[in-house]
Design goal:
The complex is a heterodimer of chains A (356) and B (150).
Chain A (H helix, E strand, L loop, with lengths): L1 H19 L4 E16 L6 E17 L2 E10 L3 E13 L2 E9 L4 H6 L27 E13 L2 E11 L2 E3 L1 E3 L12 E10 L7 E12 L8 E15 L2 E15 L4 E16 L6 E9 L16 E14 L2 E12 L8 E10 L4
Chain B lengths: L1 H30 L2 E6 L9 H8 L5 E2 L2 E2 L1 E5 L3 H12 L3 H13 L6 E3 L2 H10 L3 E6 H6 L3 E5 L2
Parallel strand pairs in B: 4-5, 4-6
Antiparallel strand pairs in B: 1-6, 1-7, 2-3
The chains are: A mainly beta (356), B alpha/beta (150).
């Protein structure tokens, strides 16, 4: 009972303290969205239909050199405190954070976080899916995060280093829940280096290294997976054209009581986008994803919803500067051995950002 | 010869007319002249247009030992429009969206002021703060110093 009461009370006190601070600047952003998707069920007349209203709430504030940010996602599927970070500007361009943050190993996730409106496509690449969406990589770390950015001539170099407690596998990956911190998670760390050829320009290239010890629960002959990841990313925006892509090479050292087996897997996606109109309101996008030999990786087979390959095409129409309508069709080849080889899906989403 | 004199007169008349037409344009250019300003007590001596642009786009710019803290001036529509066109080279909508994406990534964004008194107080309270305003306003506002004309 004490435990049940203490956590909400401490959270309430922290929130009240933060809101009562004489802040210099504060941002409260809301990302409401409604997603409808349909996926035909083979050998059946019906289809798997989903209708998901959601709102992502983001709050950030600063006072002198102190910073705070929080992101909470509430939807018909989940309610989760996604990010909760206290930061300190240790030097110009350098910030040290403590709390739960997104793992920098995925460029996509640290660009768009849970704000559906920010990304052109409706869906995320399978490899960049969050833990509760059957993503096989750790998306959330609870611990320390160091962010640094510095200019070098016309260019900007930034790095992000994070270390802390990562997720646990129990039917899906489960990151540490700050509101219910009972968790046997182990060391997870990542380091990402990014390069902007021109300051302020969205073009960026970079690479990241990651390591995670993932305890595995309730799986026969699997106790722990030690994951080493190397990833590279690119983001190019030229006039009406936008290209985002990532390549991951990861080694999963799967340990059981008897032995350890190592699997090396490569995964990549590339998403080109093109603005069809002069106003930039209509964007055509597509995405190719591939994880060849995914079914040979014993760890990946724990994620039947994971797509070993996927093709996505869609259209985004910006109704207003702060509202977008997206439609997307996809054909994926999932790892689930009980499902047919290929699954077609169609989705539509309305999303918004407030205020803009 | 008389024909030549007439031609010369015509050319001079046209020349003068062109100059006369320039006067309102020059006056308009003067009206739209932008100044980057800081507090009169600030240690910042100079700031290039490139540094100003980078600071407003979120880069960490350290000049004369201080990290620049850019403030948005929304008290004057013309100043904001000129700033977006001449310094950032982007529309207000594109800039707002870029700033929101930055804020969402935890990088913060320049604080915006729609009240001139509060903007000037913010300048006075932080010697690393800069903002932009029309030249006419900058030269008549006490307590601030012009750093550059982008």
């Amino acid at each position: 009972l004490i435990r049940t009461l203490i956590i909400p009370l401490v959270s309430l006190v922290v929130f009240l303290a933060i809101f009562m601070l004489p802040v210099e600047a504060a941002d409260l952003l809301l990302f409401p969205s409604v997603t409808a998707s349909q996926q035909p069920i083979p050998d059946a007349e019906s289809a798997d239909k989903k209708f998901i209203p959601a709102v992502d709430i983001f709050y950030a504030t600063e006072f002198n050199r102190a910073l705070f940010l929080a992101e909470y996602l509430a939807s018909s599927n989940e309610n989760e405190l996604e990010r909760f970070q206290f930061g300190w500007h240790i030097l110009p361009g350098k910030t040290l954070w403590l709390g739960r943050f997104h793992n920098a190993i995925s460029f996509w996730n640290t660009q768009n976080h849970h704000g559906d409106f920010l990304q052109s496509s409706l869906s995320r690449p399978s490899i960049a899916n969050y833990e509760d969406e059957y993503g096989p990589l750790p998306s959330h770390i609870s611990g320390f995060l160091l962010e640094s950015t510095r200019t070098a001539g016309d260019a900007e170099i930034n790095y992000t280093a994070g270390i802390g407690i990562g997720p646990v596998f129990n039917s899906t990956l489960h990151p540490l829940d700050l509101l219910n911190p009972e968790h046997p998670g182990k060391l997870t760390a990542s380091f990402r280096l990014g390069y902007h050829p021109e300051v302020g320009n969205p073009d960026q290239f970079g690479a990241a290294l990651g390591y995670a010890r993932l305890p595995v629960m309730h799986v026969m002959q699997m106790n722990e997976v030690r994951q080493s990841i190397l990833s590279t990313f690119l983001n190019i925006e030229k006039n009406k054209f936008h290209l985002i892509g990532e390549l991951f090479i990861f080694q999963n050292h799967v340990s059981s009581v008897a032995n350890t087996t190592t699997y090396t897997t490569v995964s990549a996606y590339l998403q080109p986008e093109y603005k069809l109109s002069e106003s930039g309101r209509t964007t055509l996008f597509g995405r190719l994803e591939s994880t060849p030999d995914a079914e040979k990786d014993k760890y990946l087979t724990l994620f039947p919803e994971f797509s070993r390959s996927q093709v996505v095409v869609g259209l985004r129409f910006d109704l207003t500067p702060s509202q977008a309508l997206k439609v997307e069709a996809g054909r994926s080849h999932r790892l689930d051995i009980n499902e047919p080889t290929h699954i077609n899906s169609i989705s539509a989403q309305w999303s918004m950002i407030l205020p803009l | 010869m008389e024909h030549d004199i007439t031609s010369v007169k015509n050319i001079i008349a046209i020349w003068l007319a062109i100059w006369a037409l320039q006067v309102p344009l020059l006056a308009q250019a003067e009206q739209q002249r932008l100044a980057i300003v800081t507090s009169a007590d600030s240690n910042i001596k100079t700031l290039s247009a490139k540094e100003v642009r980078r600071a407003y786009l979120g880069a960490s710019i350290v000049v004369d030992g201080v990290e620049i803290k850019p403030l948005r001036n929304l008290t004057n529509e013309l100043a904001e429009e000129v700033f977006l066109q001449k310094v950032l080279f982007m529309s207000g909508e594109a800039y707002d969206r870029q700033l929101l994406a930055r804020a969402f990534r935890g990088a913060g964004r320049p604080k915006a002021y729609d009240n001139l008194f509060e903007l000037l107080m913010a300048l006075h309270n932080n010697n690393a703060a800069i903002t932009y305003m029309l030249y006419g306003m900058a030269v008549t506002t006490p307590g601030i110093r012009i750093l550059s004309y982008p």
